[in-house]
Amino acid sequence: MYRTCWPLVVGMFALGVDTWAVAGFLPSLADDVGVRVSVAGLSVSLFAVVYALAGPIAVGRTAHLPRKAVVTVALLALGAADLLLATADSFVAVLMFRTLAAAAAAVITPASGAYAAQVVPPRQRSAALALVFSGIAVAIALGVPLGAIASDRVSWRTVVLGVAAVAIVAAVLVAWRMPPAPGSARIRGADYRALAADPAVRLVCAVTFVAVAAPYVLYTYSTEVAHALGLTSSMVPVLLACFGVGAMIGNHLGGVFTDRRGPAWWVRIELILLAVAMAALWLGPGRWLAPVVFLAWGIGAWGFGTPQQARLAHLQPERTALAFSLNASALYAGVAVGSASGGLFVEHGTTLRGAWLAIALAGVAFVLNEAVRRRGADPTP
Fold it and tell me: What is the reported pTM?
């Protein structure tokens, strides 16, 4: 399994750094293209919106094509988008190239998961999926803080060029090392309509949307949060690393407790922990407590994936891939709304007040989570 799937892990690592590293170099990018940080944050929102809209369409358009070709071309497109981004001389150009990167990402994520599931024995599919998507967790824990350090010492353009290089190398590895795998049956309009007509699926995706919007009110502006806490820019990579480690812990615990206690129980814990972390941010933790808060923030932000997917697989066993894609769209829509909302607080010099919006959103997600549980949408532990 490891020998078969490791090129996909490299690809997902490149995708993870591409998606989340912006939080580490947003101020540098803003200065370079002559816009305010709050305006530069719109590039994150645009990326998320494009992904949210393109995800289900990408699954429908590429499901029947050979997996190797789809993943290879999408990774090359991601690399090309980052090469172009490194040459951007205006914010309009930044937005254009981030749009291209988002479209490529919307193809890479579901295609890589489907590819991994096809090229290993059935008994290893869950492990293969966990292995492939660990690339994103490693990117958040290591790639993003290292990118922040590199952008501070060299340039954000150097970071982007590095991501482009990794994406292109991953494309070559997939084309060279991965076995062939055919596409699946075409996804029809009736499949989309069946999902849209299921109220439980809509409610699960609503939980994802609100629960993800909450932590991303402030995450995109981590540098501004650090400054509002009285910390120097040199602390930002440390804080991002703590967030990333928390994300890895949350992702792992989400799988463990979803199996043992059910999705609703773990989502409750996540939302409570997230609200506590946001309240701690508002109170202003010092230099030594801030990393602990970011660690808790990461756990609270990144443990939703497994319980939400378990719910969707239980509700729509015949349309799982499409349901997962719809959930991913809800996730990125949450990132878009959260980041855009956080930009308003940054723009008015009240960055930490965004924590209260995050707490309110966590409360809404808590209520929605209970509604999902009452509908009987959760699989039995």
Answer: 0.85
